[in-house]
What does this fold into?
Amino acid sequence: MANAFTLWAISKETHQVVIDDGSWRASLTPTQLANARARQIQLGRGLCFPGEWIPRLQREAIDDRLVLDQRLWESMTDDEQQIVIRNQLIDWDEPVTLPVPEDAPTHIRRIANQFLCTEGVNCFALAVYGATQRESLLQRWLVTEDFLVELSDGGFVEQRSSDIVAGDLLTFGTERGIIHAAYALGDDRFLNKNGQSMFNPVRIIDLATLHAEWPESDVKLLRRA
It folds into this structure.
């Protein structure tokens, strides 16, 4: 029910994670299944959504929320499925985007302001893709350590200047290290992706939006030497 790339976000109250192909769920009694759904809702994991999205199914809600699984999905009409998808996307990320700059490179225009069809692509992979055009990065989750290696190998060094130009990278960090990165397109426009899921779109946003989405972060500007 949960994207494997977001396991790090699961509550610290969780001691075990079930990776299920459907057979485990099918083995549960109705009472056990209801308890499993209630636990998902309690921990905020899995695809849980407000029951009011689908009034016809509210009777199945637990604490006014429904847990999306194959049985529930297949019981919905096409219109109900569209409602869930549309609202889920809005819940996962801000739907407002800025136009793609007219002078943006082709590899940027090809993916900007849309959803990728591959799970796991995160902000680090997308930022390096913007800088290198390497297609393989649109198929992977780049961990922090590999991201730092990419920066070093690419000749990116920290700048003291606050003037951002096309081709720069912005990183956002806390005391735990770098937590986010975005690729600069110039004219206060950035290629950005918040998260590793297909529900997280590739968006064109401005610097003010980046600061709002990653508040209280240590921002660094990097540029190829």
